[in-house]
Specification:
Largest sheet: 8 strands, mixed
Shape: globular
Structural class: alpha/beta
Radius of gyration: 20 Å
Strand content: 15-25%
Helix content: 40-55%
Distance between the termini: 54 Å
Oligomer: single chain
Length: about 350
């Protein structure tokens, strides 16, 4: 019995920044989990300037609370929490998300069936419980492609808003790359895990709700009257485009790397120019797309060393790696469906 309990120990890690409006609901949902797993909770507060700390300390004294004096970003915050975690399994949960009562039990059962891997649950919109995704495929330009049906299946990646991973697999992949800061760190970890031969799976039962875009703004489809459109922010797009380019550079097998890296750079430059002209703001080119390409060139030696180390540890072939990728560019689909995104 003691050995079984030890294997069922789960540490939930919640990165918090200015989450006074959402953190209580998040932590309450963890308290209300059903099942036999031993659950402990670590919250890292990333130099919040609102009442987050007071809420956590007053209402959730049982939570292990880590703090930083300055904002260190999502990657480093999660790495610090995992370093302090006692669980055999880790659940990374956004402060703006909350779990269904059977969420941890469902994830733990999946780990029992499938072994070490990365898992997630169907993601529901906080506003109306609509299904946002059940994991993600990816296109060849390293864009996440949401899966709109509830089905348990291997996927390319899952969102870091609700990401379950065994401690052994996390350690094997080295956690999140500190130098990503924030954005696409979940894409990095999932691609690394799949390259190492581990499963990345979206489950079809249970769920979590999520205020998408609460932390970084944007990143979602918004409705205005009878029309819908894409909304994002310059900061979100800047980090996302850079880090997705890093993921492509680090993980794509050689034949695909030789083809897709120059195509991705060209696509970013064309997209940046087109968006800047459409918005009549040429600064968007340098602030987002030029920044991504310049970061790639500036950090090429470091990225090259990382790529060699990662590819030397690869356990799967190109066919298996790209089995959860899709050919049609997702950005093109979204452009045709929703038009040019709103940038704030």
């Amino acid at each position: 019995m003691a050995d079984s309990a030890a294997k069922s120990r789960v540490t939930v890690c919640v990165a918090n920044y200015n989450g006074a409006q959402v953190i209580a609901q998040c932590l309450q949902s963890i308290e209300q989990q059903q099942g036999a797993a031993h659950i402990d909770v670590i919250v890292h507060d990333d130099a919040s300037t609102d009442d987050s700390l007071a809420i956590i300390r007053d209402q959730f004294p049982q939570v292990t609370l880590l703090t930083s004096e300055h904002n260190i970003g999502f990657c480093l915050a999660n790495n610090k929490m995992v370093a302090a975690a006692q669980g055999n399994y880790l659940l990374l949960l956004n402060n703006d998300a909350w779990l269904a009562p059977d969420a941890v039990a469902t994830l733990l059962a999946a780990a029992g069936r499938r072994g070490d891997g990365i898992f997630t649950l169907p993601q529901l919109a906080a506003s109306d419980s609509a299904l946002l995704d059940c994991g993600m495929f990816m296109d060849l330009f390293a864009n996440a492609v949401p899966i709109a049906q509830r089905v348990e299946q291997p996927v390319a990646m899952v969102m870091g808003a609700c990401l379950w991973v065994s401690r052994d697999l996390w350690d094997d992949c080295g956690g999140f790359p500190d130098w990503f800061d924030s954005m696409a760190e979940d894409m990095y970890l999932c691609n690394y895990a799949r390259l190492r031969g581990a499963d990345v799976v979206a489950l079809e039962t249970s769920s979590y709700h999520h205020h998408v875009g609460h932390s970084f703004g944007g990143g979602k489809v918004v409705s205005s009257g009878l029309s819908t459109g894409l909304s994002t922010t310059v900061k979100r797009r800047r980090l996302s485009e850079r880090n997705k380019l890093y993921v492509l550079f680090l993980f794509y097998p050689w034949p695909a790397w030789l083809l897709m890296l120059p195509l991705q750079v060209l696509a970013l430059l064309v997209e940046g120019l087109a968006l800047s002209l459409a918005k009549r703001d040429l600064s968007l080119f340098s602030r987002i797309y030029g920044h991504a390409v310049l970061a790639l060139l500036t950090n090429w030696p470091k990225l090259w060393r990382e790529r060699r180390l990662i590819q030397a540890r690869r356990r799967v072939g190109m066919r298996a790696f790209f089995s959860v990728y899709r050919w049609l560019p997702y950005k093109l689909q979204m452009l045709l469906r929703h038009g040019v995104p709103e940038l704030r």
